[in-house]
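FIELD: query
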Amino acid sequence: MPLYEHVYLARQDVSPQQVEALTAQFKNVIASLGGTVGKTEYWGVKSLAYRINKNRKAHFTLMNIDAPPAALAEMQRQQSINEDILRVLTLRVDELEEGPSAQLRKREDDDRGDRRGPRGDRGDRGDRGDRGDRPERRPRREEGKVEGEVE
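FIELD: result
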């Protein structure tokens, strides 16, 4: 059977529990038509690049599917009817990715903790030292005087 990676976006108004219920419903559709769902990943609520049906954010869910094309077509038909589903993307792949997807790996990389330097900054500017290579500043002009004006 062909292998697919399937991502769907659900409205931001629905709760994560409702998204899990939608995922279980779609898994049942695939299973009833002779396919299997290898792994599912809930990526959370993410901002969209542009508004879709007045929504600026959406719940993202990935499903790795091993199913006949008819099962996938039926799942996509049900998703198109459901008004909580904003967008669907299905890709046929040669092999399914084992382990966490790139989105989950990215989230784990972002959770590395506090990386602030000794001065409280992010520490990515390097040590600049005392800046002794700068010339001295010129004196500030006095209030009310215009440069080049003679008293």
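FIELD: remark
The mean pLDDT is 83.
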